[in-house]
Amino acid sequence: MKKLKIALLHLLPIAGDIEYNRTLIEKAVQLAASKQADWIITPELAVSGLQFSHKIGTDWIKVQPDEWMTHFFDLVKSLQTNVFLGCPEKSADGELYNSVFVINRKGELIGRQRKVSSVTDTWSSSGTVIEPFDVEGIKAGIMICADAYTNNVADILLAKEAEILVAPSAWGPGLHEPAGEWEQRSIDTGLPVIVCNRTGEDKTVTFWGAKSLVIKNGEHLLSHTSVQSAILTFDWDMESMELLSSQFEVDDLSD
After folding, report:
1. Domains: count for the chain
2. Where are the beta strands (DSSP E) in 67-116?
3. Rg of the Cα atoms in the chain
């Protein structure tokens, strides 16, 4: 049995407050690692918050790894875990992307997925490469929020032998709320979908009722909403593709 302990960081980032969000992420990662989490997953754009550009613009976005990201790599190495981190980035040619960085236990960047469906992200370009990442022998595919809206990204990941789909998201109830997209992607591919969502609110979007989920065959195996940051830990058997936990182990993350 290959048991995987996964921690979802169901956070309340503040749009545009980069220092606050970085500190929150570091604190959450340290606590999740203390619970022996093998994978730690943040929401989409955990470093910046979703609607940050109207507050601080985009000039601060750097080519990665920047100074803080390098520090974060060292932190992950010291904690001996794997992290999926949502953070904006600038490419070498100056394009901006909504990205998820995959960092292994050695503190090495083993890959980045750039959001493909960037229609609503007016500051970012669309990613063009869709590849699963080998995380300690497990092929993880990443769908960033609206990348799950159609079957395009999930189908490509399945064709490239992804074994599990990770969905870092900032997708709450209200206008254009989730309406079965994650569930359908799990049915389409036959793969489990792990949704790490968030709480709080930004300029025009609220996330108080946003759900972090573990989904298999279209069914919610685990679900969580909260009005404060929380760490959600569960165990998954990669051989039988079965949930080993009866519920999320929830740790509230107070300031």
Report:
1. 1
2. 82-90, 96-103, 109-114
3. 16
Mean pLDDT of 57-69: 97
Distance CA 97, CA 196 (A): 19
Looking at the chain, the whole-number percentage of residues with pLDDT higher than 70 is 98
Q: Is pLDDT above 60 for 103?
A: yes
* pLDDT > 60? residue 1: no
Cβ–Cβ < 8 Å for 170, 198: yes
| Paired tokens of 73 | 């790599």
Q: pTM of the full predicted structure?
A: 0.97
In angstroms, the CA 94 to CA 63 distance is 8
The three-state secondary structure class of 117 is coil
Q: Can you give the CATH number for the domain in which 216 is found?
A: 3.60.110.10
pLDDT at 119: 66
Which stretch of DSSP H or E encloses residue 5? strand 3-10
Local structure of 204: helix, strand or coil: coil
Structure tokens at 72: 């974060």
Q: How far apart are CA 133 and CA 142, in angstroms?
A: 8
The residue segments making up the domain with residue 121 are 3-252
* Cα–Cα dist 128/114, whole Å: 8
